[in-house]
Amino acid sequence: MQIRQKLTYQFILIVALILTMSSLSIYFFSDDYRRDNFYNRLLNKATNTAKLLIEVEEVDAELLKRIDKDNPVSLPYEIITIYNHKDELLYGSNDDELLWIDSEILNRIRIEGEVRYWQGNYEVLGFMFADNFNRFTVVAGAIDINGLNKLKNLRAVLLIVFGISILLVFVSGSIYAGRALKPISKVIEQVNNISISSLNMRVDEGNSKDEIALLAATFNKMLSRLEASFKIQKNFIANASHELRTPLTAITGQLEVALIRKRSNDEYEQIIASVLEDMKSLNSISNRLLLLAQTSAETPNVDFKPFRIDDLIWQVRTELIKMNSHYVVEIEIGEDFDDENQFIIFGNEHLVKTAISNLMDNGCKYTSDYKIRVSIQLKEQNIFLHFIDQGIGIDPKDTEYIFEPFRRGKNVSSIKGHGIGLSLVQRIAMLHNGNVRVESVLDGGSTFTISFPIYKI
Question: Is there a domain that residue 444 lies in?
């Protein structure tokens, strides 16, 4: 069921409930008023009749019957009976015995003072009338033909008005719901026109104030993120393909050249060694791309656990120097550490090791003396790792782009690299609720700082 239909039906239901409650209230209050008014008229008429019979000596029962018979203010089918304290009938117009009155009813009237009840179509009123010496029981009944006809007419009017109102509400509700949902229909139409090739399109935000405008604005923000993600993905695929194609082309070229003619064992060994180096480069690129894709996911599937970051730094230093014996890595630990538990962070040890290794390797690789200093500092429940070198530095124009995948500074084009490491470092830092920043002077060295929150035991 469409929202328009739901809103229409809900609107009809609400109005129907309101009309029903209002109609019932009008009907029952009108009926209550009719009943009170009728009983008051019956009381007045019966009281006047009792006064004439009891207080006026010249009036007897027969004369009173003739008076009541010709009285224009008599109620329809009016019956009045008067009894003394011995339940003897003093006066009665109940000749046809339309009202059944017994001693039980009379006693009830004497006890309660006034009794109202229905007997067939008659509404009956019983009350006590007293003169100076005696008390009399008066029972009067009549049929409120006029009042009941008005009530019946009111009931018919209310039903007709209810039916017409529901019909009008259905029509107006349908039109209102259609107009209310028109902006949403417009948004749906605009969204249907947006495809992968037209992610630059945006939904009209209308007055930018109501909930529909907020929905459109939220959708536009999502489109902006999607557009940015698609651009990043497109550039990533293009750059990754280029980076992978370079070693593959080199391998293919070397093997094709090797097959042109027979060569000596030494030449074959040189070719195999060169191909092996390219294969290692290809493997390194593949691993970095895999890590980059893994850390770029919104919910990375990685295991986190507590570990000591100082031990990890010493481990990375040992492995890096083992592979590059000319590297020099100095490690300094700040004086703010007074507890071994302050070195513990919560995260994925392999990813943090990759980030530290990248920063440490870059510091040595882009420095003429292959030397880097790593300073470990504690500040405000965070561990800061400063990677300080005196290398070639970074051009200020390139600083804002160096953390993007496959972006490298112009002054390092002659040095081997793929432009993946720093973007991977940034993703790893963000994944661990940390941060990474750089301070650099062209030809004056660089300082990369990465931070991680301390794990509270």
Answer: yes
CA 199 to chain centre: 26
Surface-to-core class of residue 115, CB atoms within 10 Å of its CB (0-12 exposed, 13-18 middle, 19+ buried): middle
- DSSP β-bridge partners for residue 115: 126
pLDDT at 413 over 60: no
pLDDT tens-digit readout, 43-77 = 998 888 888 888 777 767 777 777 766 666 678 88
- 290 and 359 part of one domain: no
Q: Is residue 417 part of a domain?
A: yes
Tell me which residue range forms the domain holding 315: 305-453
- From 234, 262, 296, give the residue that closes a domain: 296
For residue 204, being part of any structural domain is answered with no
Strand partners, 119: 122
d(CA 257, CA 271): 9
Candidates 1, 6, 8; CA nearest to 170 is: 8
Residue 115: predicted pLDDT: 93
Residue 329's pLDDT is: 92
**Same domain, yes or no: 324 and 449:** yes
- The verdict on pTM exceeding 0.70 is no
Indicate the angle between helix axes 211-260 and 265-296, nearest 10 degrees.
170
Within 56-180, residue ranges assigned H as helices are: 61-69, 103-112, 145-180
What is the predicted pLDDT for the residue at 24? 93
For residue 284 the two structure tokens come to 């390194």
Contacts of 220 (CB under 8 A, 6+ apart): 202, 203, 205
User: Looking at the chain, how many residues does it have?
Assistant: 457
pLDDT of res. 308: 92
| CATH number assigned to the domain comprising residue 224 | 1.10.287.130
Please tell me the least confidently modeled range out of 17-31, 104-118, 334-348, 373-387.
334-348
pLDDT, averaged across the chain: 82
276, 326: one domain: no
